[in-house]
Amino acid sequence: MSAHATILLADDDEDDVFLLDRAFKEACVPNPRNRVADGEQVLAYLEGAGKYGNREKFPYPLFLLLDLQMPTMDGFEVLKWIRQHPRHKRLPVIAFTGHESKPVLRQAYEFGANSLHKKPSSFEELVKLVEGLQAYWQVIRMPPAPPVAELTISN
After folding, report:
1. Is the separation of the CB atoms in 17 and 35 below 8 Å?
2. For the whole model, what pTM was predicted?
3. What digits encode the pLDDT tens for the residues 38-72?
4. Whether 82 contacts 89, CB under 8 Å
5. Does the CA dihedral 56-35-30-115 come out positive or negative?
6. How far is the C-alpha of 44 from the C-alpha of 140, rounded, in Å?
7. Dmax of the chain from CA atoms?
8. Taking Cα atoms as reference points, which of 17, 7, 25 lies closest to residue 62?
9. Which parts of the chain are beta strand (E)?
């Protein structure tokens, strides 16, 4: 995984975000991470809309770490939206959930998650999960980020 590639984290829980940031540091993952707190912000970020319009500050992510339980628009709705949009449908999405039941697992994969992980119950398990993600993304070749939409003016 390129150390310059940005990871987008979508999670509304401040404690989870804090622990995940610590786990990335503990696992020595140098990638910058941008965080959004709800599904609508994920869509705005991916589209480069509003405050996310500066692609130098908010680059298109290498992958999305997505909490399935978020306000305004849950992770399942986000997955469905991503997979229906040609510019984003190839974005890898790693979903996290506090409830790893068979229906949640099935629905996450049906909606297009590339993987689903139960949120670890200990910090040590979280670090191992992050280390596994890093090892996986070091060997995977990803397509380039989609081009930034160009403004066209019609007469």
Report:
1. yes
2. 0.84
3. 999 999 999 999 999 999 999 999 899 999 999 88
4. yes
5. negative
6. 26
7. 59
8. 7
9. 7-10, 33-36, 63-67, 93-97, 115-118
